[in-house]
């Protein structure tokens, strides 16, 4: 299947409509966005995709425990644990300040990790400029509003 939505697509199964079609498109977007983020941001910075996601989460949210990162990222806890160990060895993350709960072991970015996080912004700007090229600003703004609404609803999802 071509990643170009304007390209003719082979008939590979059922045609979806309405909210189901939107959900399928969102699932495809979630699956395919990893490639440009990996190739345009993670690889040039010497990180795996999971490393990048952790750096972005900690840079955006602050101190988080491994199980929080696993839940936010949808990545198995063992993968998060390995990535945290690698990032720690590289001097990019360190134990968090809140150590009152011995079972919860938060981590945070070191100064070097924060500097790396800051470097992701220009790289993500380049990826975004390429991906959104030709998309009018009003559509980009509308997409952000819809994404924010859906993300808020996902946070309240109860099954």
Q: How would you describe what is shown here?
A:
The protein has one domain: Winged helix-like DNA-binding domain superfamily/Winged helix DNA-binding domain (Arc Repressor Mutant, subunit A). 62% of the residues lie in helices and 6% in strands. The chain has helices at residues 18-32, 34-42, 49-61, 66-73, 77-89, 111-131, 137-155; strands spanning 64-65, 93-95, 106-109. Strands 1-3-2 form a three-stranded antiparallel sheet.
Number of strands: 3
Report the uncertain regions: none
Roughly how many Å apart are the termini? 31 Å
- Hey, roughly how much beta strand do the residues contain? 5-15%
Q: What is the average of the pLDDT values?
A: 88
Indicate the CATH class: Mainly Alpha
Helix % is: 55-70%
What shape does the CA trace take?
globular
The H/E string reads HHHEHHEEHH
Number of helices: 7
CATH architecture: Orthogonal Bundle
Q: What structural class results from the helix and strand content?
A: mainly alpha
Q: How many domain modules?
A: 1
Describe what is shown at a glance.
With 159 residues, this protein is mostly helical. It has helices at residues 18-32, 34-42, 49-61, 66-73, 77-89, 111-131, 137-155, and strands at residues 64-65, 93-95, 106-109.
């Amino acid at each position: 299947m071509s990643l170009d939505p304007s390209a003719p697509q082979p008939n590979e199964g059922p045609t979806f409509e309405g909210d189901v079609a939107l959900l399928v498109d969102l699932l495809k977007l979630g699956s395919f966005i990893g490639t440009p983020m990996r190739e345009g941001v993670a690889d040039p910075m010497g990180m795996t995709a999971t490393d990048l996601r952790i750096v972005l989460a900690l840079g955006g949210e602050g101190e988080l425990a491994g199980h929080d990162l696993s839940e936010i990222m949808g990545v198995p806890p063992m993968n998060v644990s390995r990535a945290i160990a690698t990032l720690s060895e590289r001097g990019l993350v360190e134990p968090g300040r809140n150590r009152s709960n011995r079972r919860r072991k938060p981590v945070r970015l070191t100064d070097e990790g924060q500097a790396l996080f800051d470097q992701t912004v220009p790289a993500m700007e380049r990826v975004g400029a390429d991906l959104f090229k030709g998309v009018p600003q009003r559509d980009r703004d509308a997409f952000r509003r819809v994404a924010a609404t859906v993300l808020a609803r996902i946070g309240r999802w109860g099954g």
